[in-house]
Each structure stands twice: as structure tokens, then as C-alpha cells.
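Progress against Task 2.4 (sequence-to-structure conversion) is shown through the following example record, which the project officer requested during the mid-term review.
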Amino acid sequence: MKHKFLLLIFALLVTPVFSAKMGMPSDALKSFETECGSCHMAYPPGLLGQKNWQSIMSGLNKHFGTDASIDAKTHTEISQWLVRNAATRQKYSAIAPDNQITKSAWFIHEHDEVRADIWKRVGVKSPGNCQACHSDAATGGFSENNIRIPAK
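C-alpha cells generated for the chain above:
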């Protein structure tokens, strides 16, 4: 029994730090998923560092070519959560050029074997469409064991 308890504690400690639901009050979670997830996957906060999230949230009126402005209360709630749960490991917290996860050094390194034609497939569309290949991306899981690249 003690062995199972220790395994459970270990599993909890090694759970990926970028789980989209980690440490988020339910109201903030709903806001995050509703506001961010209405246009794209609500990217797990641990995929970028604090400075990137602060920059993204301070420029929502010009969010990658779209006005993604939100009310002040929701903005504060989501911003604080993103910063609090941003990447802390150097690998993920290094500044991503143009605030784009897909331009970060760790992303490029992890995807260097992906051929250019795969990103253009109808089922993939772009490197930012994590869910196309990572079936558990929305919950912060990016295990190589769960990758399914669309055929077309």
C-alpha cells in the first residue's frame, strides 16, 4: 500500500507543468477556455515564459492581426493566471520571437524532423495547430506516444 501511495505522489510531482488546468480557479479556467479557445487552442501557459504572456496580453487589440480585446476583469484574471503558471524551466521560458510558440527554440528543436509538406496538410494547416497531431494537447499532454499525424 505504501508503495502505491509513493507512486501516486511521484506521478503528481512529475505531471507536466504546462497543464492548462493546473492551479486555475474554475471561473478563470472558464474565461481562459472561452476567450482564448474561441479562436484557437487555449495553449497551456507553460509553453511560454512570463514575458511572452505579458506581451501577448498587453497587445490583445492587435493579437496576431485580430482584435481579441476582452473586458478588464477577464483580462486581469487571465493575465494573472498565465503569468503565475508560465514556464519556469529555461527550455520553455526563453523569449519566443514575436510571442509565437512555434518560433521558440524548444519548439523548433522538438519538430525539426517534421517535413515542410506535413505542416501544409489539410488536417494540420500550421505548426500552431497542436491538436492536429497531439491528441492530448488541450490538456497539456504532448507525449510522443500520442502523436498521430493526419494522412492528408
